Prior knowledge:
mainly alpha; Endonuclease III, domain 1; 12 helices; 2 strands; 54% helix; Adenine_glyco
Amino acid sequence: MTDHDGLIVGADGVTRCFWPGDLPDYLHYHDHEWGLPVADDVRLFEKICLEGFQSGLSWLTILRKRENFRSAFAGFDFHKVATFGDADVERLVQDAGIIRHRGKIVSTINNANRAIELQKECGSLAAYFWSWEPGAADRPAAMDYATLRANPTTEISTRISKDLKKRGWSFVGPTTVYAFMQAMGLVNDHIAGCECRAKVDKARADFERPVRR
């Protein structure tokens, strides 16, 4: 890896973004998930909740616990999570397989209820989130290495954060929202020169954007 471009060449000879290093599970996530566009409401809800849990931690920590989170939170089916009560909170606080942060657990249940409201209003979570997709004039062609390392926020992620908070969502700050946007394909922040960038560009070009009602 060189400091000026933020790229790393793996043992397999593939040039990638710097951040997965040489960790197999992180490489798989980078190559097969990160940045590919998503329209599934459950996956979108899962990701924004897990980004909230990640606050103050590394994403790798969350990634390695993701299956535990899915088991604990009913697969992130927000209609089911919305029914969780005090007993579920106590169960989850005792679950060593996840991040046992009471505030974030309560937030996930709260956000499940808010997700149902948003789905009813907009038709789907996907329609809501994709309505915020930045246009070409709103961002550079590729996020530069220095900015990406700085854990960025953008004007649009700040606006989404404010809108979600007005709707009663929690643990959805601008940095959390931007990480969500990067992961779910609303932007393509694979660094120029990463071999996954073109794949994500094609997937985004072929992707049928859901329409907000």
